[in-house]
Amino acid sequence: MALQSVTNKATRIKVKAIGKLRAPRGETPKNIVASFDEDVEVNGEEEKSSANPDSHKTLTKPSLDVDIPGYRPDIRNGIWYVSEVDLEFIACGTGILGTGGGGPSYLAYLVALGALRKGGKESMRIVSPESLKDDNLICFGSWYGAPSVSGERTSAGTEIPAAIDALNKILGVKDFQALLADEIGGGNG
Length: 189
Known about the structure:
Layout: E1 39-42, E2 45-48, E3 74-76, E4 79-81, H1 84-97, H2 106-119, E5 125-127, E6 138-140, H3 148-152, H4 159-171, E7 178-180
Parallel strand pairs: 6-7
Antiparallel strand pairs: 1-2, 3-4, 4-5
Helix pairs in contact: 1-2
């Protein structure tokens, strides 16, 4: 499919594979549990493979091992310390509650998940606006325009922070106390 919003004649190719995932015979190392149910030949010996009990786990669905009805976010002294599970739920909610505005939330979720993992536990916090002082400086940044472009040209995840940093440099701002999300739809959420 040709991408109209790009000048370099870029093309998007979509591929969908359907069927059982199977490693080629003889190429599965002994120390890796095969994820298919048949005999495989490894180094000239026939072995029965078994399903990996952790095969349902992914790097992007932390809620799979969580008792969702019993789950509670980590809120202490009015500060919500965002977890990987919280991010997944927020992304899902912004996709639903955004009613189509703001584009898909998945790419922004992956960027946020990467930032949380890099920053460590308690590196992302959500506070009530009432907890801020009257003289606190609050920045905001959002995507504006047609969200279809973000599906064609994947962002690096650094554009909004770079824009905030550039404006703060121009204004001489060295520190600010909060970021404000001015929309909940899709990627902005």
